[in-house]
Amino acid sequence: MPRNIEIKTKASAWKKQLEAAKKIADRYESLDQEDVFFNCPSGRLKLRTQKGKGNYLIFYRRADEAGPKTSEYFPAEVKDPAAMKALFNAAFGRGRTVKKKRLVVFAGQTRIHFDKVEGLGRFIELEVCLKKGQSPAAGRKIASGLMKMLSIPEQDLLKTAYADMK
Predict the structure, then answer these.
(1) Is 38 within 8 Å of 44 (Cβ atoms)?
(2) What is the CATH number for 89?
(3) What dihedral angle (degrees, nearest 10) is formed by the CA atoms of 42, 114, 163, 67?
(4) What is the value of pTM for the model shown?
(5) At a CB cut-off of 8 Å and minimum separation 6, what does 115 contact?
(6) Residue range of the domain that includes 133
(7) How many separate domains does the chain show?
(8) pLDDT per residue as tens digits for the range 16-54
């Protein structure tokens, strides 16, 4: 299962942080996303639909704690998201829905997400995608360096998923 190191934070200085991220960007893209969460006893399960992009069923496990944390995830492309939503809703029960506009900044092995989440506000997520054999400690070091570069204060770090904030 792929792993990454993640942080989620309030965007306390959105413009400044976005400008800093774009300076180190290999590329970036804008996405409109809707995540439908389903009740899942052993982690989180969501159906992500994206305008003009692929749709995915994503299962992941991570601790609900502030600061850099390891996340194991498994994405599977979905060809018929409406049927998948109905199936998983019937099987597991539906949780919350999160709609967001996301700017993804790709920088090395890290995806920096600048999210405008409907009903919640602006946030930044870092996902350091661990390479095969790379330790979580190495990923946390990269995440910590990016936190400094983006001027993300420790007190702005968040523990939970957007769905838990609604």
Answers:
(1) no
(2) 2.40.320.10
(3) 50
(4) 0.92
(5) 100, 101, 102, 103, 122, 123, 124, 125, 162
(6) 3-165
(7) 1
(8) 999 999 999 999 999 999 999 999 988 999 999 998 889
